[in-house]
Design goal:
The structure holds two protein chains of two kinds. Chain A is mostly helical. Chain A is 76% helix and 0% strand. Chain A is built from eleven helices and no strands. In chain A, helix 7 runs antiparallel to helix 8. Chain B has a domain of 75 residues. Chain B is built from four helices and two strands; from the N terminus they run ααββαα. In chain B, a hairpin with a 5-residue loop joins strand 1 and strand 2. In chain B, helix 3 runs antiparallel to helix 4.
Chain lengths: 245, 110
């Protein structure tokens, strides 16, 4: 079971923490490279849809959610109204509720203001990197959280601004395979979290539900459905064989 | 320079932030039933695997719709997952995946 309220890495040796943080930063660099590439593309797309530099960059600072932002740019270009964009944003970002719930046992003991700030930067990347990092250490590491969030969340608005100003000069990031960085890193981190049969079952079920559900109802909804239902399958496996930890 | 869409950005943030924040502000989670705590422990691998699968299996078609897609990306993600599981190095895994996809696309002209 998670060590509740653990809010620092004081109990681990310095070498363990240093090594874990180095790995965390290296993994963050992979995500940041992808974020930079697609931030540039987002900035360019936003400019072509009529966004000013302030409008495009403010969306990257305030929303911090690539899929929702790309969708918003497309909808603005098509002349859609704000209510439909806001509704779609809520749907696309509903999965963050699961991230927050999973992080709560690790970060719940922090000061309210700090939790409020941590929540803003709880993106796909921050969640994946931090959770794997915490599980490796066996406790929360607040500096590690901010390192992961800082590297990934700063690259996005910076790349957006550059994309608005000069994105037309930059080649398609897919040409360099950068579009595969996100699923590759996220999949790898899922495997790192799969330390027992229930976790493996939850991961396999999550992937299967996302694919099957994606065909039936679309990928945005199916990812949330996979994240909600697959842990139940892990619990079933746990109940059948493995003693609870 | 126009700023009209800053309002839209704030509205989008306003509907996103509660999802990211509410559970972090819930009463202390060690009072939750054990089964809920075990469920939350399994959310991580489940949703990350779902995200990885969703982002590999579906791609935007020419009309901008997300549709099921089979391609070199599957092999690249599989390779990355194997490398990360074996070496524990995420950067190595994603570099290998990106190089494989870039080479594959260069060779096939895709």
């Amino acid at each position: 079971m998670i060590e509740h309220g653990a809010s620092s890495a004081a109990g681990s040796s310095n070498e363990d923490i240093g090594s874990a943080r180095r790995d965390l930063v290296l993994a963050s660099v992979g995500f940041a490279a992808s974020g930079l590439g697609f931030g540039l593309v987002y900035g360019l797309a936003a400019r072509e849809a009529g966004f000013s530099l302030i409008e495009a960059t403010s969306m990257s600072v305030f929303v911090l959610a690539g899929a929702a932002q790309f969708a918003a740019v497309g909808l603005i270009a098509d002349g859609a109204g704000w209510p439909s964009i806001v509704l779609l944003t809520a749907l696309l970002n509903a999965r963050h509720l699961l991230y927050s719930a999973a992080m709560a046992p690790w970060l719940g003991g922090r000061a309210r203001l700090e939790r409020a700030a941590m929540a803003h930067v709880l993106t796909d990347e921050t969640f994946a990197l931090s959770l794997a990092h915490f599980q490796r250490l066996g406790r929360a590491d607040v500096l590690g959280y901010w390192l992961a969030a800082g590297i990934d969340c700063l690259s996005w608005p910076i790349a957006t601004a550059v994309g608005v100003l000069g994105g037309q000069l930059i080649p398609d990031p897919a040409q360099f395979g950068l579009d595969v960085v996100f699923p590759a890193a996220i999949g790898g981190l899922a495997v790192k979290l799969a330390t027992g049969r229930p976790e493996v079952a939850a991961a396999v079920a999550g992937a299967a539900l996302a694919m099957v559900g994606g065909i039936v109802v679309g990928p945005a909804i199916s990812i949330v459905v996979g994240g909600l239902l697959a842990p139940m399958i892990g619990l079933l496996i746990e109940g059948k064989g493995e003693p609870s930890r | 320079m126009t700023v009209n869409l800053v309002g839209l950005a704030l509205l989008m943030a306003a509907v996103t932030y509660p999802f990211r924040a509410l559970p972090l502000f819930a009463p202390t989670t060690d009072r939750l039933p054990a089964v809920v705590q075990r469920y939350l422990r399994l959310v991580g691998p489940a949703i990350l695997a779902a995200l990885a699968a969703g982002n590999t299996a579906f791609a935007e078609d020419a009309a901008g719709r997300n549709s099921f897609h089979l391609g070199i990306e599957w092999i690249a993600v599989g390779l990355a997952v194997l490398l990360i599981a074996w070496r524990g190095n995420v950067l190595l895994g994603v570099l290998a995946a990106a190089v494989l996809v870039a080479l594959g696309r260069a060779l096939t002209g895709a």
